[in-house]
Design brief:
Elements (H helix, E strand, L loop, with lengths): L4 E9 L5 H12 L2 E6 L6 H14 L3 E5 L4 H8 L4 E6 L1 H10 L4 H11 L6 E7 L10 H20 E8 L2 E6 L1
Parallel strand pairs: 1-5, 1-6, 2-3, 2-4, 4-5
Antiparallel strand pairs: 6-7
Helix pairs in contact: 4-6, 5-6
GO molecular function: adenosylcobinamide kinase activity; cobinamide phosphate guanylyltransferase activity
Function: Catalyzes ATP-dependent phosphorylation of adenosylcobinamide and addition of GMP to adenosylcobinamide phosphate.
Protein name: Bifunctional adenosylcobalamin biosynthesis protein
Length: 174
């Protein structure tokens, strides 16, 4: 595939599958300067505790950038040779876009269009949400559909794609 980005990896998996740890290990093993783009928002105390724990687990060897909405712009601002950038995660970013009433298709296309310009090693994490039952409400169905389309766009460009289940990686591409 000519449009494939060999220096990028998409890591998909369910909740608590081990995908973030796997992605962090990929970045650490690269030996490059480590940057982490956190897309999550603390909507409540429990989420804030999760964010704080993830940050503590990574330690001081990572530079953390919190970016809930302007993902392509933040990537462009911190991109550079000699760096590895981990984005965690696309589905939280998608949630933020939907909660703000943003055009998710436009934002996803902007992100996918920016990726070929990357000089940094990119590792992108996202939750696979399309393996369960059909959600009972419209917003949840729209979220699932947006996530599926976004994953297809990013997977088409990524040099590698992994699916993580029970902490075990399955290499799907690359």
């Amino acid at each position: 595939m000519t449009d494939c980005l060999p220096n990028s990896t998409l890591v998909l998996g369910g909740a608590r599958s081990g995908k973030s740890r796997f992605a962090e290990n990929l970045v650490t093993a690269s030996g490059l300067e480590r940057h982490y783009i956190a897309t999550g928002r603390a909507w409540d105390e429990e989420m804030q505790a999760r964010i704080d724990q993830h940050k503590a687990d990574r330690g001081s060897s990572w530079t953390t950038h919190e970016e809930p909405l302007a993902l392509a712009e933040r990537l462009a601002a911190i991109d550079g040779a000699g760096r590895a950038i981990l984005i965690d995660c696309l589905t939280l970013w998608l949630t933020n876009l939907m909660m703000e009433g943003r055009d998710t298709a436009l934002q996803a296309a902007a992100l996918a269009a920016w990726l070929p310009q990357a000089k940094a090693r990119l590792v992108i994490v996202s939750n696979e949400v399309g393996l369960g039952i059909v959600p009972e409400n419209r917003m949840a169905r729209e979220f699932r559909d947006h996530a599926g389309r976004l994953h297809q766009m990013i997977a088409a460009k990524a040099g590698e794609v992994y699916f993580i289940a029970a902490g075990l990686p399955l290499k799907m591409k690359g």
